[in-house]
User: Fold this.
Amino acid sequence: MKHKIVLLLTLLLLAGLALAQTQRYSFTQVVDKLDLSKKTSLAAKNFWGKVVGTEVTWSGKVDNVKGGRGKAQILVGNDARRLYKGYNIVLTTFDVDAAANLEIGQKIRFSGYLNKYKSRKGRAVIIYLTDVKLLK
Assistant:
C-alpha cells in the first residue's frame, strides 16, 4: 500500500512539473517583467530565473539574418514593445537553409527556448531564444 501511495504522489509531482513547463508566456508578458523602467532589477532577475529554458512560440518581422559555424542568428522585431535598432528578439537556429531564405520585413512565426536577455532602464529589452524552429 505504501508503494502505491508513493507512486501516486510521484506521478502527481511529475504532472505538476510538466504543467509548469507547458505554461505559455507571450512576448509582451516576458518583456514587461524584464523592463527595468517598470520593474526593479531584482524582480526582473527573479522572474527570469523562473522562466529561463521555457519554450515559447512568438512572431515578428525579420530585421536581419547573420550566419556562421553551422548556425544562423535571426534578428526579429516585435512591434508590441520598443525596438532596439529595428529588433528586440534574437533567434539562434541550426536550420541555416531556412534562415538564408528569409527576407527583411518578412513576418515569421517561431518557437524556441528562452536563453538570455538584455535590459537597461529606458532602453528596449532584447530577448534571446535558442534551438529555434521556424513555423509555417
In short: Residues 2-21 form the longest helix (20 residues). The helical segments are 2-21, 27-34, 41-51, 96-100. Confidence is low (pLDDT under 50) at residues 17-21.
